[in-house]
Write a structure and sequence with these properties.
With 423 residues, this protein is mainly α. It folds into 2 domains: 238 residues, no CATH class; 164 residues, no CATH class. 71% of the residues lie in helices and 1% in strands. A hairpin with a 6-residue loop joins strand 1 and strand 2.
């Protein structure tokens, strides 16, 4: 345990304090409202009832749901580039809104436009193909580079300064002019240079060289299992597991967005390992899949200590909130619970992946259910089969934690008896 702590604590702290990872993680999490709107639109399209499908097609509701998907999920990169630019610049102590706007401008500069028709009938448009999940990696790079350039120029005072008599909101609007021009020139030049290459544009280059390999690696089951092992150990040592999960969060969230878009377009999703899928099947009660442990505490504990903890923690645990369990039971630094707490989520993710690969469980649709609520989350992301699997998972967590809990409960009963005798 000491050796593991020496290895994991510095790694988790490095990830947790990494400016880039934390910027991207915070920015993407701020897009949850847009993702939920797109998820609702996609969910309304997917209800497999013939009469319902005929109704939404004939009344125009289907077109409305498609609009919801198009302006949210299929434009995820647009919102992400602004959010990342905003968070990065704001964290550096400068005007985050200007950072977000300049990032969005830079992103649009490098995004190829399509022209149809000729002469006066010619029309120029932005294709959705690079504005959604496929353009997310470009959005990250563009926003981070823009943020660095903007903050560098601001630190060097390379900006227009207005007299003190000018109102602050007017003065602030002028400070971004010079950085904006510099950023536009840099990304405009990049766009022209990449047009001369075989890639044709910046998006294609980043997606082919970086996006596809990262998606392939980060979206694999082996990456998910490794991330959850490391996350479990972090939680065990009292370090929030998001420090590790945030390293792959952009990849997993992009996979969710791609699944929503694919189902809306073709009715078929292909990405198994996604952020919402892992949440739905690997967080039964939160980190460590502790819902089974809390059920044992609430309904089978002989010791007063664990019985009271179970009653207090069972409702939060049903909503994926298990800090009271991790730090109150505690699971943290509890050697008796080390094996189930760290490895039970990994086992459930592995089994779920095999069941999905064999067709027993459907591929997740990418829709987020908010908090990781067992059964409900499964129902939202994969229908009744995943919901039923969640029920089975809950029973598995109870059975796996049972022998370990018996040890803890026996020890607690003995301690309580000694305390009574001393009094």
């Amino acid at each position: 345990m000491e050796k593991l702590e020496k290895i994991l604590a510095p790694m988790a702290n490095a990830l947790n304090n990494n400016k880039i990872i934390q910027t991207i993680s915070k920015a993407l999490m701020s897009l949850m409202a847009a993702l939920m709107i797109g998820a609702i639109g996609s969910l309304l399209q997917q209800i497999p009832i013939d009469a319902y499908q005929s109704f939404i097609q004939s009344t125009g509701i289907y077109s409305l749901t498609q609009v919801l998907v198009n302006v949210t999920t299929n434009m995820l990169a647009v919102y992400a580039v602004f959010a990342i630019g905003y968070v990065f610049v704001n964290n550096e102590g400068y005007d985050g809104f200007t950072g977000g706007i300049l990032s969005l401008i830079a992103f649009m500069i490098v995004t190829p436009m399509e022209t149809t028709g000729e002469g006066y009938a010619a029309m120029t448009s932005l294709p959705l193909s690079w504005l959604g999940a496929k353009g997310l990696f470009t959005a990250m790079f563009v926003a981070l580079i823009t943020g660095y350039i903007y903050c560098f120029l601001m630190r060097k005072n390379i900006t227009i300064k207005m007299p003190d008599s000018v109102p602050p909101f007017v003065s602030k609007s002028f400070t971004g002019i010079i950085p904006g021009v510099v950023i536009a020139i840099i990304f405009g030049t990049l766009s022209i240079l990449f047009q001369m290459t075989d890639f044709g544009n910046v998006h294609e280059a980043i997606y082919s060289v970086i996006g596809l390999p990262l998606t392939s690696i980060g979206g694999s089951i082996w990456a998910a299992l490794l991330i959850y092992v490391l996350s479990g150990f972090c939680w065990f040592f009292g370090i929030h597991g998001i420090a590790v999960v945030s390293a792959v969060m952009p990849i997993w969230m992009a996979a969710d967005a791609a699944n929503i878009a694919a189902i809306s377009a073709t009715g078929v999703a292909t990405n198994i390992v996604t952020y919402n899928w892992v949440n739905a099947i690997g967080n039964i009660g939160g980190a460590g899949c502790t819902l089974g442990l809390i059920i044992l505490c609430a309904f089978t504990a002989k010791s007063k200590r664990y019985r009271e903890i179970g009653k207090l923690a069972i409702v939060p645990s049903c909503f994926g909130i298990n800090e009271p369990v991790v730090f109150g039971l505690p699971c943290m630094l509890n050697a008796t619970l080390l094996i189930p707490f760290v490895f039970l989520p990994v086992i459930l993710i592995g089994i779920s992946y095999l069941l999905t690969m064999t067709g027993i469980l459907p591929v997740g649709n990418g829709i987020a259910a908010g908090a990781a609520i067992p059964v409900f989350s499964g129902l939202i992301i994969g229908g009744w089969r995943v919901a039923l699997w969640n029920v089975v998972e809950i029973m598995i967590t109870v059975l796996v934690y049972l022998p370990f809990f018996k040890i803890l409960d026996k020890q607690a009963c003995q301690e309580e008896q000694v305390s009574i005798e001393e009094k």
